[in-house]
Amino acid sequence: MTTPAPFIPWSTAWHQAHVGPAHLGSAHHQGFYRRHSPERHFATEAQAGPLAEALAALIREVDTRLGQPRPLTVVDIGAGAGELLTGILGHLDDELIGRLEATGIDVRPRPDALDPRIEWVQGEAPEVVSTIWRNGVTGLIIAHEWLDDLPVDVVQRDDQGTLREVLVDPATGEELLGAEVSADGDAHDWLQQWWWPVRDRAEVGLHRDRAWARLCTSLNAGTAIAIDYSHLAPERDSGRFDAGTMTGFRDGQAVWPIPDASMNITAHVALDSCAAATDPPGRILDQVTAVRDLLGDVDPAIPDASTDPAGFAATIELASARRGLWERSAGVRWLRFDVS
To answer: In total, how many domains does the chain have?
Structure first.
């Protein structure tokens, strides 16, 4: 079948819209992430304290397990403005920071006010990781809300029940059903294993599985951690996500997703398929469990306000921040891959 211009596969339009160049008719646009800082458009836990506190605890765990290597490398994928790495440094002691090689990777240039202790690489992961660390990363690779920004192909049933690829006009977001999904193709195989039956619409996570697997092969020793809004097979089987999960975010508001480079586009991650993409498979934890494993109880021991008013105030603030993280953790899971 002939596809009328300008309709293209969702994954192609999404990739161009995020990291560009995006071609919209006669206009040429630089990708969203090359022009925008994420915090302007949507809130992320990278901008809050408890996540950085938990990841600092994970760094100490990995450091001990690896025998306190020099350097201990920490790589933040899709680092935004460097908020997460900056927060992590605030929870580490001087001795460990002295051995730490902290690097943020993002498609945008280095932020002007970034802590000088943080190195910066402009580029796209996972390609840049395997290029820079040719002998592998020894330490921790963090992919926080990275996988959900990677493109997916979208499929949908037509009126006759045939499963077809969904195409999109990048300038308007208008959709068109394209070719039938081939029964002997990779997308069909993925759907049969991870999102079957497709009752209405589904998002094919193959690109994400491959990106995560490649990122994990860049780990020499240590841990790779992905933290993201996600769903698992029982949730997909329930029909909860039959209409898909794709959403746009612009100026702090959820909007209809249009791949015109004006917004962040995201879709929940089929995290069980990512977990199975590595050898050995990764381990999935809900965020509350993962953070509690690292930090302990949500309510730390509170000092006496009459004898230690500053300590009392700081501890109350800490407990409140942790509780806030718990409350915002619905649907957020951690995928952990360890190499001895």
So the answer is: 1
